[in-house]
Amino acid sequence: MDRFRTRLALLGSAAALTAVQLTGAQSAAAADYQWVALGDSYTAGVIRAAGDTFEVPRDGCERTDRSYPQVIDRDLGGLLDLTNVSCGAATIENITDTSQSPIGRHLPPISEDPDYPFPAVPPQSEAVSAGTDVITVGVGGNTLGFADLLTKCMEVGGESNGQGTPCKDALGSGIQARLDKVSTEYDRMLAVLHERAPKAKILAVGYPTIVPDDASKCAFGDLTKFGTTTQGDLAWLRTDVLEPLNKAIEKSTGTQETASFVDLYASSQNHSVCDDAKWVEGFLTLPDQLSFVHPNARGHRNAADHVTEAILNAISPS
Fold it and tell me: Which residue from 93, 150, 153, 286 has the fewest beta carbons nearer than 10 Å?
């Protein structure tokens, strides 16, 4: 109920803001804000639990109709003109200046995508221009190599029969270098976005809670959670990988005057992969959908609430 009232309040604010703008002498120009959504699969949606892909023909980026950019676009009606170029598996460099070859749902030997291979898509920053008013960007996990970490942790956890911290033991010494890479590339990305859109407010969207504070909630071997990843490694992933990733992104926003951080972590604390009311799916969503630890529609709804508030603050008169 609280989240419902929050959404109503946010939508009411949007309606009021639009009404004020429509009374001005330049209402036609002021009522339409240009918003560009950039990011990886946590923005695009990708999995079936986050809705259906809606682009025809498909480009392989797997944007879904219940991902948070599309939810906000529906919620705020004509207030924003959305360009959504987020793409599953995107790295920070794919935002900044490197083209990407989308994979769609082609993950052999697990799944084959009949439309694969897909043509390369340009760097997402090319969708940004001097006329852009708001940029949202959610990226960093693929630059960190989070998917590879998840795969490795499940593999070595199975070999250890669920004991100890084999993933931390194998990969822990290299995590700081990965985080440093994220920070360096994120700083550069923000500078490039600001250069392309000097008047735009940049909203850097963080990652939600994925691993619970109590890793014992995550039953060993359960593929709707983290499979054969050990509880010790899950605790390590939370405290030494995921939480520092959000902190690195938040710190980078402090280097750019026009950027701010949108925190999704605190609001999703009790909705991890291993909670009953989960907002992030595990490796599988029953009965047979590969989800590989991505937000479902409820997770995107929560993201939409927080990003909406940040957008309204960004475009409201100071």
Answer: 286
